[in-house]
């Protein structure tokens, strides 16, 4: 073994190489929860990162798991071009809204219904990165928008603006009355 120290190095590299191969995977990022109003359209954002450049074999799969935990349903598939579902609840209700070159594989669901409540999964494979995380988006379809902090802030700012306008108007009216009163007093003094 004295004359061949490189053999040990090759064996060690051979053991570590599969471990390095497994770390090269696609990472998928999504919004964890989305709330949308019944009858509207909603973009489900999904982006990814890959240790390999975007390949011609990049595939995107969107699936849906209803809240009642019935079977998964296909929503959308992409391989070189978008493929819409030929049947099911999302037929003619889903469109591609991604840009592969920007690592964006988002979709838009049209005309949301309460039956669309559930979890959407986004999976990306980019050869040779075929393993990786699966992104999940929980969608809640509501009848009307709930009163959130943003709405509270908008009401507070609107109320403050109205109050400010009222105060400025009162100040202007008071000044004009004072000026008129002073003119009357001046006229009365000149008449005397």
TrEMBL record:
| Segments forming domain Ig-like | 18-140
Q: How does it sit in the membrane?
A: Single-pass type I membrane protein
Looking up PROSITE patterns in the UniProt record yields: IG_LIKE
Signal peptide as annotated in the record: 1-25
Identify the InterPro entries for this entry.
Answer: Ig-like_dom, Ig-like_dom_sf, Ig-like_fold, Ig_sub, Ig_V-set, Myelin_P0-rel
The answer on whether this UniProt entry bears the keyword 4Fe-4S reads no
The subcellular localization recorded is: Membrane
Q: What is this protein called?
A: MPZL2 protein
The record lists the organism as Smithornis capensis
Taxonomic classification: Eukaryota, Metazoa, Chordata, Craniata, Vertebrata
